[in-house]
Amino acid sequence: MFSIEHSNLTETVRLTMTGTYTSPPCPPDNTHPLSARDLASFGQPTVGVFSVTLSQNSLFTQLTDIEQTLLQALCEPVALKAGQMLNPQASDTAAQVYFLTGATVALMVQGGPRSSLAVGLLGSDSAAGLEYALNASTPQLQFRVQTTGHAWGVKASVFRALMLQNPHMLGIVSHHLWQLVEHVAAVAACMQTLDIRARLAAWLVLSAEKAQTTTLHLTHEHLAHMLGVRRVSITLAAGELRDMGLLRYTRGQLHILDLSGLKKAHQPH
């Protein structure tokens, strides 16, 4: 047990930092500064419940020790499942921010009821739903879980209040969002200029890097949604990459055999 003094809080926050937490109740909606009593009431740490810690998220590790402790106290562990839509039709006050520690999440643009295109992919270097904490959400951008895994969730309104009390934290998040804009621009350029085989290769490389594994649980149907093409186009492109010795696949599972070769396959000639 140890104490943390923070100039913006009226009391001392005492936390036992075990890195594992039970699911705390959601804090009330408000835009007022968080008191130490608020923080302490949002959930008590325990041992042996959730082995994946927030320290596995590189965005979280850019925060100061005090900021990390305050944020950890407000977060609860969640398990995200492939295909799950995050914050569907949620308001800025009801939405959650998810710090990813194993799951990967695709940024999707919906062009119609049956038309979608992935313009980015988030992993343990990022968080999904940050725009809700900044009151900057848009219905055109959706978040779909690609890889099943763990994350830590915090209510967007609560995270907003915490950032307003901690300018350094707000600066880290703002810088990260600018990096995310660059990432989306790079993915969009790839989708616009490359053929389907090269686009598929690029998405598989990105998926392997974000999930930190060369074994991916991705179906042709899912990949078709990500690239905004027909399933048969994915089947043909994957077959070409397989014949090149770059990957092999079974039903619902894809194994990358040559990651460096796959990277070369999506580079423009």
Describe this structure in words.
This protein is an alpha+beta fold. The chain has 2 domains: 2-189, Sandwich (Jelly Rolls); 195-265, Winged helix-like DNA-binding domain superfamily/Winged helix DNA-binding domain (Arc Repressor Mutant, subunit A, Orthogonal Bundle). 38% of the residues lie in helices and 23% in strands. The chain has helices at residues 36-41, 65-74, 130-133, 156-165, 167-193, 196-211, 220-227, 231-243, 259-265; strands at 2-4, 13-15, 76-80, 85-86, 96-100, 104-112, 115-122, 127-128, 141-147, 149-155, 215-216, 247-250, 253-256. The chain has a 4-stranded antiparallel sheet. A 4-stranded antiparallel sheet has the order 4-9-6-7. A hairpin with a 2-residue loop joins strand 12 (247-250) and strand 13. Helix 4 crosses helix 5 (167-193) and helix 6 packs across helix 8 (231-243). It is globular. The N and C termini lie far apart (59 Å). Residues 1-49 have low confidence and may be disordered.
